[in-house]
């Protein structure tokens, strides 16, 4: 399997291609192209959040813990200082370490998070966040989601490529465990994830403008 640095460099390269072509084809301004580059790179790291040794999962839960502390701070502002300190540090530790432990226990490496369905989940989360929280226009939000999805797919492809041993043309047992539509071995997990993805898609802004741009990009590439 490809390691962290390989994933990081290939995803960053893919992100560069996405940003350059998005800008050249006139669907992204400079800011949007830069964001697309970052998001593709991030997408290329995301599938390995199911790996116990992954740096990404540590970052993710540290970030979540910081957000929790910030949100909680508003609520406990008027409390005595020592109580604030106690509750905030307890919150930080339980998210950064506790929630991470629980998460790692329930996710098998190369399970559900190494699937296109999980890619769709993160892409839609980006679309919704960009649209509702950052108040971007629907088209721009969908391009951001697309960047995450492209990075995610690059990661899955890379894992598959690495499971073919090119030196003596032999296929390792891990072949077929990375690039998949969903987790075939755990249908219940997959159905659950599918329901979440459907719910997110239901709340997403209309992709019509994005499809239109995608089609014109496709026509440009073909001609
Ligand atoms: Zn992986």
UniProtKB/TrEMBL annotation:
UniProtKB keywords: Hydrolase, Membrane, Transmembrane, Transmembrane helix
Domain of life: Bacteria
UniProt entry tagged with the keyword Membrane: yes
Annotated transmembrane regions: 34-49, 56-75, 81-99, 111-134, 140-158, 188-205
One Gene Ontology term of the molecular function aspect: hydrolase activity
Tagged with keyword Hydrolase: yes
Listed name of the protein: LexA-binding, inner membrane-associated putative hydrolase
Source organism: Allopseudospirillum japonicum
Native organism taxonomy: Bacteria, Pseudomonadati, Pseudomonadota, Gammaproteobacteria, Oceanospirillales
